[in-house]
């Protein structure tokens, strides 16, 4: 039976192909051999595709699992919670449960895994998304982490609940300690406070060289702003200290402490905060992991630390009460200064002329919110009425506040810079007090020819008064107004007339052309040349030049010419011109003594121009 | 008959001259009485006299002086808003009068208004353009046009690049010189009012209490009157939105 390979079921494809091949082997037909090869290839491809489809169908259901790195942990030990969503390309964690007594850290960014394997003759594809989070027990006991929900598309899947047993590290509690010590358990709103963390281990365990502090409030304490902390000096170099997973930069080693009759190597680190609202600040349970680590290097020479010994100790939770500033007795000019301050002041220069600048430098120091209060304004204090305040510059630090005021005395009678007052709330006495600088003696010299800036100011004030009424009542000289239509008409007609004249003139040629300029200058040139002409020849040449310029011809065109051709002249004038030209020629060329004087030539030239030459 | 007619015409002319002279004398008397009252510190009476002289037309007395004096009387009486209005009205008649300008700036500063001359480039240019009365501006414009004509004539007769450039320059100058005249005409013909309320004047949709406020006209801003009802003035606002303001919030500048 001939069966087309394309129509066969995938399971029978190989067998049918072999049977067909055996039958066809006897025929020894080349065409049938080719057909057999094609059938084999098609059957194999169909088989692989079918198996792949089956494999995908088997692994398509998502599954969420959660596991802990250990089921039994010591108090303070950090455990890893791993959440895996299988058979999904992407997923998000819907909600993280809260478990009292366990501190569940945030899940980090997910890692994605994808693989394709051949197993048992089948192709299996695997996809998974994995998250990790740190879990730190805060107390001993049995804990159950409820199912963690994972959202895949529109569906939500949940992991199975997890059990965790937390036991105290009795040996760690004996070998190490951690203490959280606030500077005060009760502070005023705005009053800075510090929190010192002391930790360490038994001095007999000299091999211990690392500590990991678990301080949930260290990075951010709700309801406070963190103050800059001064650098601690004696940071040991043989110890690694971390807060959570970050290396701790500022810590120092103290003298060994005796606890429970044993000597402990002791370290400390400090943070300072300023409360921003009243209420209770909770510094939840702190723990210490300590022990010994050794440095290892891998094949690529990358060093890492490996725990060799590990112990845990637990600290007690601490709370701080923040009480509001009392309203009773609060000064109107209270600028928020809370604490116990000292103040000192200086001024430079102290021998000045009225109006000169004095740098009045005030420095507050002590314990308090030195960085946050509003510095007092001298211009608002009556004692500084004799001064003009041009400005101030401020320098703030944790332990001091320096403000430099730019003052100028305006009265030569001033003898001192008065005390600068600032209201401060003292948290120890729970009262508002006024802190004042000591008066500083100064010498103020008057301005030359003036009594001071105060009187100068008064003079300016009077100068700014109204100018008196106009009592003359002189009749105003009324300038007549140019009628609007006339103005608009002129605006239109003037350019129009100008353009008309221009066009008319241009019709006769360009007035700026050289020949036209020569023609306009001809009379002046004639007068000038006649004035300098020494003989009849020069006068003849000058007159011919004049005639040539006026007729836009060359000078030579008028030598020997007896008619003013091309020029409409009065016949009498033309006759006179011809006659004078003959006389000039004779005088110039024949050597006769008869001559034509310059005045006669100028007169004729004038008449010729008027006559249209 | 003809003689009789001539006699009647002569008598009427004489009567008109005498009437004008008497009226001028009356205005002069009001002016002097106002000055005397002002010197005596009776600013209300001074204001009444000067207003009477102003309402009479005051051809014989310089109106600018009357407006300036009324501004002083208002300022001395503590009415800085009206004082600003009087000074602004005086400045319309004598745009370059230093005394009026100084008093206006003083009153505006005391009242908490923005300065009349802000001192920036735009304000300076505006002051230069608006520093002329209509008559002055018209003569300036005519002079510029005449100069333009002369230069144009020279260019037509003599030609040359220099004259041509000068003609173009003078033409542009004549156009620029027209601007103050146009501005002065517009200023004179507009029924301008000034907002004298320090907190600004609410521009409401209808002349009644409780009407919707369209905008608040800033103190010292100029508006144009469109209509009036007792206690209310309809004006065109800064952004050309028309509405009603209370009459006491604005001041008429055309006096």
**Span from first to last CA of chain A?**
131 Å
Q: Give the second-level CATH assignment, the architecture of the largest domain in chain B.
A: Alpha Horseshoe
Radius of gyration of chain A: 56 Å
Across the major sheet of chain B, the strand order is 6-5-4-1-7
Poorly predicted sequence stretches spanning 5 or more consecutive residues of chain B:
none
Radius of gyration of chain B: 24 Å
- Could you tell me the number of beta strands of chain B? 7
Assigned CATH superfamily of the largest domain in chain B: Tetratricopeptide repeat domain
The helix content of chain A, as a percent range, equals 10-25%
Give the uncertain stretches of chain A in residue-range form. Answer: 1-14, 52-58, 454-462
> Which CATH architecture of the largest domain in chain A?
Sandwich
Biggest sheet of chain B, in brief?
5 strands, antiparallel
Oligomeric status of the shown chains?
Answer: heterodimer
How many strands of chain A? 34
How confident overall, as mean pLDDT of chain A?
A: 81
Order of helices and strands of chain B: HHHHHHHHEEEEEEE
CATH class of the largest domain in chain A: Mainly Beta
Descriptive keywords:
heterodimer; A: 613 residues; alpha+beta; Immunoglobulin-like; 5 domains; five-stranded antiparallel sheet; 9 helices; 25% helix; elongated; B: 255 residues; Serine Threonine Protein Phosphatase 5, Tetratricopeptide repeat; SH3 type barrels; 3 domains; two-stranded antiparallel ribbon; 7 strands; 61% helix
């Amino acid at each position: 039976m001939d069966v087309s390979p394309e129509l066969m079921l995938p399971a029978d494809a190989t067998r049918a192909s072999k049977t067909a091949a055996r039958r066809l082997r006897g025929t020894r037909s080349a065409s049938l051999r080719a057909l057999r090869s094609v059938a084999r290839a098609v059957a194999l491809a169909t088989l692989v595709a079918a198996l792949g489809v089956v494999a995908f169908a088997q692994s398509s259901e998502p599954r969420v699992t959660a596991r802990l790195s250990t089921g039994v942990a010591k108090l303070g030990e950090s455990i890893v919670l791993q959440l895996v969503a299988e058979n999904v390309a992407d997923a998000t964690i819907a909600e993280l449960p809260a478990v009292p007594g366990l501190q569940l850290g945030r899940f980090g960014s997910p890692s994605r895994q994808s693989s394709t394997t051949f197993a048992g003759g089948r192709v299996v594809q695997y996809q998974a998304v994995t998250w990790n989070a740190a879990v730190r027990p805060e107390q001993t006991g049995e804990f159950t982490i409820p199912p963690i929900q994972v959202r895949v598309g529109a569906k939500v899947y949940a992991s199975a609940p997890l059990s965790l047993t937390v036991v105290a590290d009795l040996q760690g509690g004996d070998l190490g300690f951690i203490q959280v010590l606030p500077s005060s358990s009760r502070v005023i709103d705005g009053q800075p406070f510090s929190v010192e963390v002391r930790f360490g281990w038994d001095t007999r365990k000299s091999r211990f060289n690392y500590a990991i502090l678990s301080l949930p409030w260290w990075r951010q304490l709700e309801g406070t702003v963190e103050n800059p902390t001064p650098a601690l000096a004696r940071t040991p170099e043989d110890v690694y200290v971390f807060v959570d997973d970050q290396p701790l930069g500022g810590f120092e080693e103290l003298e060994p402490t005796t606890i429970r009759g044993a000597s402990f190597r002791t370290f400390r680190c400090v943070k300072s905060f300023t409360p921003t609202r009243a209420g209770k600040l909770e510094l939840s349970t702190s723990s210490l992991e300590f022990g010994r680590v050794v440095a290892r290097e891998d094949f690529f020479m990358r060093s890492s630390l490996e725990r060799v010994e590990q112990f845990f100790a637990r600290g007690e939770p601490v709370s701080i009460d923040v009480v509001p500033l009392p309203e009773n007795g609060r000064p109107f000019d209270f600028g928020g200064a809370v604490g116990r301050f000292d103040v000192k002041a200086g001024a430079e220069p102290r021998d000045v002329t009225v109006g000169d600048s004095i740098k009045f430098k005030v420095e507050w120091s002590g314990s308090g919110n030195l960085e946050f209060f509003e510095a007092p304004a001298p211009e608002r204090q009556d004692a500084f009425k004799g001064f003009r305040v041009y400005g101030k510059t401020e320098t703030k630090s944790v332990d001091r506040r320096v403000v430099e005021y730019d003052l100028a005395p305006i009265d030569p009678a001033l003898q001192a810079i008065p005390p600068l007052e600032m209201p401060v709330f003292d948290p120890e006495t729970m009262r508002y007090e006024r802190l004042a600088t000591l008066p500083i003696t100064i010498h103020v010299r008057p301005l030359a020819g003036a009594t001071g800036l105060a009187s100068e100011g008064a003079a300016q004030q009077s100068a700014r008064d109204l100018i008196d009424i106009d009592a003359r009542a002189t009749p105003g000289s009324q300038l007549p107004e140019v009628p609007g239509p006339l103005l608009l008409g002129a605006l239109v007609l003037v350019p129009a007339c100008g353009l008309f004249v221009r066009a008319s003139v241009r019709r006769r040629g360009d007035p700026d052309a050289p020949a036209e300029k020569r023609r306009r200058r001809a009379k002046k040139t004639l007068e000038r040349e006649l004035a300098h002409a020494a003989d009849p020849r020069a006068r003849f040449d000058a007159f011919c030049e004049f005639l040539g310029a006026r007729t836009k011809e060359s000078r030579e065109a008028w030598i020997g010419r007896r008619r003013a051709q091309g020029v409409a002249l009065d016949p009498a004038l033309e006759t006179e011109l011809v006659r004078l030209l003959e006389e000039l020629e004779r005088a110039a060329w024949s050597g006769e003594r008869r001559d034509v004087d310059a005045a006669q030539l100028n007169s004729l030239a004038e008449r010729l121009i008027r006559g249209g030459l | 008959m003809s003689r009789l007619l001539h006699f009647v015409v002569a008598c009427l002319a004489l009567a008109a001259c005498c009437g004008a002279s008497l009226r001028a004398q009356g205005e002069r008397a009001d002016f002097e009485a106002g000055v005397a009252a002002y010197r005596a510190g009776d600013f209300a009476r001074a204001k009444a006299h000067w207003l009477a002289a102003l309402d009479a037309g005051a051809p014989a007395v310089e109106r600018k002086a009357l407006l300036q004096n009324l501004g002083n009387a208002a300022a001395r009486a503590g009415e800085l808003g009206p004082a600003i209005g009087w000074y602004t009205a005086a400045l319309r008649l004598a745009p370059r009068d230093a005394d009026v300008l100084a008093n206006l700036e003083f009153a505006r500063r005391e009242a908490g208004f923005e300065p009349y001359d802000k001192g920036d480039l735009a304000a300076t240019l505006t002051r230069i353009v608006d520093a002329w009365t209509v008559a002055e501006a018209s003569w300036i414009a005519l002079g510029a046009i005449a100069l333009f004509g002369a230069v144009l004539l020279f260019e037509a007769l003599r030609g040359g690049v220099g004259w041509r450039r000068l003609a173009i320059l003078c033409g542009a100058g004549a156009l620029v010189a027209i601007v103050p005249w146009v501005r002065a005409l517009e200023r004179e013909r507009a029924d301008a009012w000034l907002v004298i309320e320090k907190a600004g004047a609410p521009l409401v949709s209808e002349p009644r209490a409780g009407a919707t406020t369209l905008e608040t006209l800033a103190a010292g801003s100029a508006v144009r009157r469109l209509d009036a009802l007792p206690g209310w003035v309809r004006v065109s606002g800064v952004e050309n939105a028309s509405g009603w303001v209370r009459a006491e919030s604005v001041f008429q500048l055309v006096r």
